[in-house]
Amino acid sequence: MGLARAAALVALLVVWQIAVVSGAPEFLLGPWQVVKHFVEALGTRELYDNIGASLGRALPGFFLGSVAGIALGLAAGSSRAFDQAFSPAVFLSYPVPKIVMLPLFMLWFGIGETSKILVIALACFYPMFINAYYGVRATPKVLVWSALNLGAGRARVFRRVVLPAALPQIFAGLRVSLALSFIVMFAAEMVNARTGLGQLIRIAENSLRFDLMYVSLITIAILGYAGDQLLALARRHALAWQGSAT
Amino acid sequence: MAGKRDLKRLLPFAFVIPLLLAWEAASRSGLWNPLLFPSLEKITRELVLFFSRPEMIHEAWVSLYRALGGFALAAAVGVPLGLVMGRSRFVGELLDPLFSGTYAVPKLALFPIFVFALGIGSLSKVALVFLECLYPIVIVTSQGARGVNRVLLWSAGNLGASGAAALRRVVVPAAAPFVFAGFRVALPIALIVVIITEMISSADGLGYLVMYSLSSLRTDRMLAAVVVIAAIGWALDKALVVLRNRLVYWEKLDTYYV
Description:
The complex is a heterodimer. Chain A is mainly alpha-helical. Chain A has helices at 2-21, 31-42, 45-78, 80-93, 101-109, 113-137, 141-149, 154-191, 197-206, 210-238. The radius of gyration of chain B is 22 Å and the shape is globular.
């Protein structure tokens, strides 16, 4: 199977390179050129500055949104009163595209970092809240009853039974949130920023620097993939007891 | 019981009404520039204007048809692809790494290339919506198709159903709730992508209207557009849930979400 997969990948790259060599439009670079430009860019300071600026927005936003989402989701899942007061508003606003808040935040907090971090946090909040909420709600009741029967207090039940039961769902939410934080970061930078990978791709687009366009594209792809893999690693560690983690 | 249900329906607004009141208070307090917090009255006036002007309705229509066009294409390609990936081991193992490996990569980064390839109009936006929506639909559908109860398939085969009949009568109904779960994730994404791409580079659509109103300091108009976008997002989701409960009538959705 691994062989078939590798063969398919190589075939794809070869077809791509041939298509480019035999006269593709200017904006389509071949895989060989893309790699060459990317390696060249790795030697420049500019790329690292932009990566730093982008991560400086995506990660604080992801962190803020996830922490708030997990905390409120766990609270809504465990407390009926809080659930009834708070959850309907979250579910009502869930299908609304959060990126529309960016212009509003730009108005209130200026076009600097705050507005971008806040809109990323807002986008990350929703999947975290919903996953933490359903993680808690899906806790097997028998486990909670057993723990109570064995004399555990409410706080202890929450920490030792509910939290571990919700953890797989929380990780599922983290995966969605991390991907979202990169998308929203990129979008916010493409709309309005002076630094970052999204702004780099805008400059490249406007000045027809196709090489820079691909460098930005490859960089964001690698960052997204690496973040996802790191999260999968953390998940395997945290959920080692779960056996076959999918 | 009926009274209690009505009360439940009103609950979301328990949070919204204080928020609106706080907004109005902020707008009237005079602490901030009225541009930052335009009064509810002004926003409402802009909303009424929005619905009374055909060119504004046209902007909403443009955004809506880009979102739904890309979503429909993704559904038309993603559902069969997901079914095949779930039922055929070879195809599944070949394509699974492709989808899970590039899942976390923001496809938005491809937008400038799409603009060069397909132009700045609707086509590049529909293509990006298609790509972003394809992922959740394919991934969730293939999960559903893989999880079909084997006993049901064996029974169907035993009772003389051909491969095609088993697919239509067993696999598709079993995967249907998953297909709709994928749709439910993909549909808000479709709207998000359309709004983002219109904010980045466009000459029409609601995303463009938001950015244009902001840069001409008509924040009341901008907020009216934001309200319209939010309402479209909410209405699309509701419509999908109604459709789902009609088609997948044997498995009711009774929670708020998925």
